[in-house]
Amino acid sequence: MVTDNHGVLECPKRDGMKIEGNDIGDLPLNETVRGLLQLFENPNSNIPLCDRCETNEAEHWCDSDCKHCFCTKCWDTIHEVGQYQHHKKLSVKDKPLEVPRCGEHNDEDQTLKYWCELCSKEMCGNCQQFKHKDHKFVLVTEYVKSLGEKTENGLQGVQSCVNYRSDRVDKMLTEIEEESQDNQLKVTTAIASIRQVIDEQERILLESVRKTEKDERKKVEDYKRSLQGEQQNLIGQILKFVVVCHDKNPKKLLDAKKPFEDYIKATDTKLLELKPLTRTKKHLPDLDALKNMETEIRKIKLEALKYDNEKLRQLIACIPDKSTFNLSNLKLTDLDMEIVAKELEINTSLTKLRLFMNQISDIGAQHLADALRTNTKKEPQIRKINVTPPPIYSNPQLTELITNNVNSTNVNFPSKNLTDQDMEIVANELLQVNQ
């Protein structure tokens, strides 16, 4: 452990305490663990020595006047003559427990062999007859035995709870890993899908923008070429007009009158046909929605599922008799049991809990068990809490219908709205008929 942890030993109880490997020898001994090791190494170490020779291990206990442990040799030596022959011999393992003597009546050799349940203390026969005369009492040996059984049961309960929770923790670790992998897959799949849509839409939009640009550019450039042709023609006519006007010859001007008029008329007609070019500006209004989408994407985060059952809370709050909770046939789940458990922690008068016909697993049952452990105000009542079994279901009309048609080959059940429980009755009746 130290080697794997870079020479540092961490407390198994995980209280944050750490110690260098070289300093382990300075730690105090764990007497409990050492005692267990000695017990396993020497299972017979609690066998006493012979009270006579003090050398051999005792094998017998004299339950008569001697009240001593003896080895076989010493027993035979002492108990072979006289009245000692009639002493009661027991195995040393059956030696009665040593009970301390009463401090107040020590001179009378009174042992503390009774337990006063009212005063919670040991007492001798003298004390029981006078000081604890009217108190309820039992033998100390019986009390110790019951105390041992109670402690053992309590430890077994704790062990069962710890084992269950340990198993549950292991399952949780597996659930966490599987849940993480599932969520990672969902994230990568969703984002990849969005990324694919965005990439595809980007390609489509860019192609559309480029095509629109190409089409509009061609249209404008064709229009521009038409205007450029008219501009060239206009320049030619202007040059002719300048030449005619420069000569100041009236005849030339008169001769040029018709060609100029024909040009102007023809050009006006062309310009009327070649109307001024207009265009509508193209834009992408839905791109603004991407900003909102970006905001929504950034809002996505991993959250714990929030569960509540307000109907169940109101039902519990409205129960008039707090000693009995009838929560049957409500389709309650393990998550609902957390709500019920919180009520059990504070309810000190509950003695009966009905939960049949629900969907509760061992996890939900553990929530209830933990809640009952924390409610120490009414421990006796809590111990009496029981889960009432479901009542026996019956349908007299259905039973009568089957009985009346026991000899019929066909039995009709029109508009009976039969349930699974009703069909169980039908099956049982048919089985009895066939028998």
From TrEMBL:
PROSITE patterns named among the record's database cross-references: ZF_BBOX (PS50119)
GO molecular function: ubiquitin protein ligase activity; zinc ion binding
InterPro entries named among the record's database cross-references: CEBP_ZZ_sf, LRR_dom_sf, TRIM45/56/19-like, Znf_B-box
Keyword terms of this UniProt record: Metal-binding, Zinc, Zinc-finger
Entry-linked Gene3D superfamilies: Classic Zinc Finger, Cytoplasmic polyadenylation element-binding protein, ZZ domain, Ribonuclease Inhibitor
Coiled-coil segments on the chain, per record: none
Superkingdom as given in the UniProt entry: Eukaryota
Tagged with keyword Transmembrane: no
Limits of the B box-type domain: 97-140
Protein name: B box-type domain-containing protein
Native species: Rotaria magnacalcarata
